[in-house]
Amino acid sequence: MVTFTVEDQDGNRQEIEAPDDMGFNLMEILKASEYPVLATCGGMALCGTCHIEVLEGKDGLGDATDPELDQLENLPEYYPTSRLSCQIRISDILEGAVIRLRGEDVV
């Protein structure tokens, strides 16, 4: 299991535990945890509605792919630590990370 923290739009933080051996991505875990992530494209990095900002732990995540960067750069609000949650696999690299939901900014 991997534990990370999610900050919602109101600044409330909640720790989430997620299995790291089932191939889930962060978007799927956020949706399963009942966060309001639209994920309109179903995780194909085509819409940007699963936009998050990584507040802590970005170094371990690696760089965004070109298709992910293309979507992020077209968002109304884009931060140096922005990522698409559909492109981040649940693994030990997320241990202790803190992410902020941003997808609602584009809806």
From TrEMBL:
Domain of life of the organism in this record? Bacteria
Q: Which Gene3D superfamilies match?
A: 3.10.20.30
This protein's cofactor list reads: [2Fe-2S] cluster
Q: Which CDD domains match?
A: fer2
- Say yes or no: keyword Phosphoprotein present: no
Which Pfam families does this UniProt record tie to the protein?
Fer2
Q: Any idea which UniProt keywords this protein has?
A: 2Fe-2S, Iron, Iron-sulfur, Metal-binding
Q: Per the database record, which ranges form the 2Fe-2S ferredoxin-type domain?
A: 1-105
What InterPro entries does the database record attribute to this sequence?
Answer: 2Fe-2S_ferredoxin-like_sf, 2Fe-2S_ferredoxin-type, Adrenodoxin-like, Beta-grasp_dom_sf
**Family assignment from sequence similarity:** Belongs to the adrenodoxin/putidaredoxin family.
Q: In its UniProt entry, what is this protein called? A: (2Fe-2S)-binding protein
What is the protein's species of origin? Algoriphagus aestuariicola
